[in-house]
Write a structure and sequence with these properties.
By secondary structure, the chain is α+β, with helices and mostly antiparallel strands. It contains 20 helices and 30 strands. The protein binds one RNA strand through helix 7, helix 9, helix 10, helix 12 and helix 18.
Length: about 850
Amino acid sequence: MDPSEYDLPFFHRQGFHRSTCVVCGHAFWTLGDFDRCQEAPCREYGFIGAPIFVRPYSLREMRETFLGFFEARGHTRIRRYPTVARWRNDVFFTQASIYDFQPWVTSGAVPPPANPLTISQPVLRFIDLEEVGRSGRHFTLFEMMAHHAFNRPDHEVYFKDRCTELCHELLVEKLGANPKAFTYKEEVWEGGGNLGPSLSVSALGLEVATLVFMEYTRDGENLKPMPLTVVDTGYGLERFVWASHGTKSAYEPVFGEEYDELRRSFAPHDAAVLIDHARALNFLLTDGVVPSNSKEGYFARLLLRRSLRILGRVPEAPDIYSILERSGREIARDFPEVGMHRDDLRRVVEAEVERYGEAIERARQTIRRTEDRIRSSGGHATSEDLIDWYDSLGVPPDLAVEELREPPPIPNDFYSLVAARHENERPTNDYVEVTQGLPEVPASVPKTEVLYYLDPYTVSFDAHVLWTEGPFVALDRTYFYPTGGGQVTDRGHLGDLEVVEVAWRGPWVLHRLERPSPFRVGDRVRGRVDPVRRTQLMQHHTATHLMNGTLREVLGPHVWQAGAYKATESARIDVTHFRALSKEELRAIDRRVNQIVREDRPVKSYFESRAEAERRFGFTLYQGGAVPGRELRIVEIEGFDVEACGGTHCTHTSEVGAIEILGVERIQDGVVRLNYASGERALEIREEHEEILREAARRLGVPVSRLPEGIDRLLAEIEESRKVARDRRKEDLGETAERLLSDPRATETVGPVTVVAARLDLDRTEMMELSRILSREAGRVVILASEREGRGTLFVGSTAPGISAANVVEAAKPAFDGKGGGSPAAATAVGEPGAPLTTALDAARLAARGTVAA
RNA sequence: GGGCACGUAGAUCAGCGGAAGAUCGCUGCUUUCGCAAAGCAGAGGUCGGGGGUUCAAAUCCCCCCGUGUCCA
């Protein structure tokens, strides 16, 4: 980056000079007298016992001081965003305050909620999980305080100079730090295809702020200026508090009394982990993460299980609920939403604690058994086994060792060895672009006015063709609903041509016709939306909102929509929930959702500013994921459910008709899927089901009400006849056995051994069974031959000591070119097609007799 | 999203190429005034599903489905 990028008038006004760090080689600006930048490790911590700021601050005081400072300087304070970044599909968690505004605000597509703005955003970082509690300064969740400005060519708020000035003023004038203590180190920030200069602000070894100025887009080697430049800053709240105390670790001043309380029962490291994890969990669970074995849910599970492990080591430990509760109460003073659904949160945790107990118990048993097996074969468990057990059973090594009689040593780098196993895994990220297969529309074409938002009942309209290519047509206005938000496309006609698909392409709605469009730009066309299809889709969409609201009500506020699909045949919704639904829950859901349908509540759809909507309804608006735009379209089922949604909806709940739940399944850990139908389809399905029942009853010859008993009777009959057939076959084989034993051509006795040999075309299992009957007594050799599809099979069973069936078969194989083998007790061989089976039988008989003689 | 482990009798699991097993539970009988217990006898299995390899597959290979777990 060009040095002029950092040469700010502010530095000159204040008398800063530029030096180069003798350690890291970076240039920096400072008022002090340093040969190195003040960031660790170039300079070691110097603020322990010598606080950077004039007086100690609590977390709350510091947050308030920061936000107040920027408010007083023209910034608008905005509320935190959820810690789970549902509006993005590239990350699970909000990892910096700027994430709140990516991608739409930073790309310029949507204006920021305020400009400039200030925020304290709780963010999650799992990278340093192992360092938490150990380093004295790492946290899983911390608050990133920030001030952001978004500059458009026509509206410059502020950029590098003013930003740096504000930062310095905060540090020096507001917090009373020594102005000469700081270095502003020149760095380059790059991410998401954008880059720009950045300044890393440090004092006494501690980095207190990063000021990032996004201004270029990378285009290979060249840099292109961005149309919108962004001031992205980050100030760690916990660090500020720490710097104001100058204590040895950051945990005492940040966690205060809570930490002291836990210290009575736990080592400092464990106490810090417990309280850190409790804080992160309170935010995660409040923001709707349900612990599970994948995606964001896994991180919640990880934190909870790590906590449980620590608690499990201390007999007098408080339970996990009281720790979460205590932490939650503390957080709720500043973030009231965290305290709102405590009972629900507790249920989620209870389910998870129970699962953990079960998993560990199962794993303990497995480990014990496995060790027994290893020992009985003369070995002993190895460190490698410990890694196996952790990876596949989830047993931490210290617990595994407790189970073992001969424990191997736990490697010091245990978790690195686990990580090494996962090194070569390649995650696949196959994105399906929605716009795939759609043509490029010239930017000069005016955007489509979408009318279905305003009136979902109008299905016939006139419009002008603005653009057309192949089968695609863009109109100036349309009532056709394009695929989106989980609702499938409308169909219908443009003129006389069928519309087979409708899709968004940027700001245009493209109608795809059954064949190349005959229309010309400027043509006036008549559009007719298939009203039956539209009605069904509307019903299914409104039904989905009703279902979502009902699920939150019945199961609890931890329920979030994780996906939905609305087609004509049926609809489905996937929601986060910690276990499969019970019959009772399902019945309650069915009753409640249909009750709301019958109550005929108004369903209002309207546009509202994003900020206002978020203020009124909170982030639960975004059930279907993030929605772009300054204005949100709100779909509000009065007194029941509010979501940001672009779909077509009924205006009253009774229009949904009825909701018929077709099935429930747990599609993955932590996610439950419900399938259902509404409207006309619900009735159809009900009729189909009734017809199936009637037909089944008719075929069984019982009334519908007696169907279950009828089926039981039928099953009993099948069972009975199977048994009869089996007994019959046994009996037949028994008779055959009697016959063979009394037939001198088949049976001969040689000393202590009776050899039975016969050719009877039986199948394999029958031969085995017959042999078993014949050789009930010891000292029998049974040789059976049969031919199936031209190939001879020879079966030998032996209970005669010293005579191995396998050897007998081996001896007979050459006689009919057979392949096979077996054990001393039983053996089989199959000959080539047409090979002499009788010869083989004789050879086997000879071999058996010969063995006895020898 | 990926790696690994697991899926066998009602339950918990063994077997890991040659004739499907153990323990508990269940049924009947013996013993007892009755119960518990013990003894004897017995019922109960498409070895998750589907392909393939093999003379032979619960066992080896592939694909699904389900469960668990670790990692992003």
